[in-house]
Design goal:
Shape: elongated
Low-confidence stretches: none
Number of strands: 0
Number of helices: 9
Mean pLDDT: 86
Order of helices and strands: HHHHHHHHH
Bound molecules: zinc ion
Distance between the termini: 88 Å
Helix content: 40-55%
Strand content: under 5%
Largest sheet: none
């Protein structure tokens, strides 16, 4: 999947997972950490978004393990589990990053390239739904975001913001604005001019 899709899926996965960690679903910092976690596995690809920014490291990881190698394997999943279990990092930081990381693996699983979950052994696991960069990818991502949003108990109601922008699909259910007072009649200047005066 594209980097933007992984960012969106990381944040969406955190929205759904946060209540299970006793954290609010829409906290901006946690959402940002989840989005970052959603990019981390591609540190094994020097031309990926995160790989370009961690260039010496990504060159090394790609050279030793290859793309979709150890960072996309069950070993990485176990590493995520260990990070959460042993509180090596405070949970409020570790949990969003780990959830974002796992969302990346789930996203790659939906592409034909799949994952080498049993790395270093051969064998690819895939549930091919969309090709990376295809027109279908944003649709799949949007559906997953909508599904994640639906699980958020205290999600904001977008209707108020949309109505401010002029979109309104339940106008008849809304109270009507107060009626304007009638305008005073315009004074007819012609009647006051000497030419307009009669009688
Ligand atoms: Zn990947």
């Amino acid at each position: 999947m594209m980097a933007g899709s992984h960012v969106a899926l990381g944040a969406a996965a955190w929205m759904a997972a946060a209540p299970h960690f006793g954290q609010p679903a829409l906290a901006p910092l946690a959402l940002g950490l989840a989005a970052l976690g959603g990019l981390l596995p591609d540190v094994d690809h020097p031309k990926s978004w995160v790989g370009k920014r961690l260039r010496p490291v990504s060159d090394l990881v790609a050279g030793v393990f290859g793309h979709r190698g150890i960072t996309h394997s069950l070993l990485a999943v176990v590493g995520c589990w260990w990070l959460l279990r042993h509180h090596a990092v405070p949970a409020e930081f570790a949990a969003p990053v780990v959830v974002g990381y796992l969302s990346h693996l789930a996203g790659d699983l939906l592409t034909p390239g799949g994952l080498r979950l049993s790395w270093p052994f051969k064998g690819t696991w895939a549930l091919p739904v969309c090709r990376t960069g295809s027109a279908f990818e944003p649709l799949v991502v949007a559906l997953l975001i909508a599904a994640a949003l639906a699980t958020v108990p205290d999600r904001p109601d977008p209707r108020a913001a949309l109505e401010k922008l002029g979109f309104c699909w339940q106008c008849e259910a809304l109270p009507l604005p107060p009626a304007r007072p009638p305008r005073p009649p315009k004074r007819n200047l012609a009647d006051q001019s000497p030419r307009g005066a009669r009688g």
